[in-house]
Amino acid sequence: TVPGFPEDVHRIAYNPAGTRLAVAAGFGSKGSVRVYDAAAGTGVWAAHWSDDCPYPVGWSADGNRLVAAGEKRVVAWDGAGRRVAGFDLPSVVCTSLSVSPDGTRVALSFGRGKQRTEVREIDGGRLVWEAEGWHAAFSPDGTRVAVGLDAEARVLDARDGRRLVSNGGHVGNVACAAFRPGGAEVLTSDR
Hints:
Blueprint (H helix, E strand, L loop, with lengths): L7 E7 L5 E8 L2 E8 L5 E7 L7 E3 L5 E5 L3 E6 L4 E6 L5 E6 L5 E6 L5 E6 L5 E6 L1 E5 L5 E6 L2 E6 L5 E5 L6 E6 L6 E5 L1
Antiparallel strand pairs: 1-2, 2-3, 3-4, 5-6, 6-7, 7-8, 9-10, 10-11, 11-12, 13-14, 14-15, 15-16, 17-18
């Protein structure tokens, strides 16, 4: 249990070493991203959002960058809690995100209305590509992105969003996707 949350907790994420826990929480238009020492449960740093509520959070593979997204913006911090990058979003809630292993790009998924994933540069927010699908996950080597679209799982080229592999067979809509360490397999689940 992490103490001190009067708000709804939306997402949590351990850094790759398991030493830090990031918590995105909020209610209405106010929220925060807080980082805790995972062993002691004590706060390391916090960033408060006054006009937006963060939902998904994710770490780069080296643990040196934490990224959070809300309805209005994406923000990245270094390991000490200094804001290092960010960009504005259209007024659509980001439902999931995945940070590229090198920490330079982020895959953002939007699920209300049209299901879509955007891959953007974290520094400045330049759109690299957009594709149908959501619940995106970068492969461990950063060369592929897995997404779900309705009852189909897709693996896309991380450079341009070109479809590499598709696999149907889900009973319901794909709800999440994750690469196995090493990147040889993708696990997906449906609702």
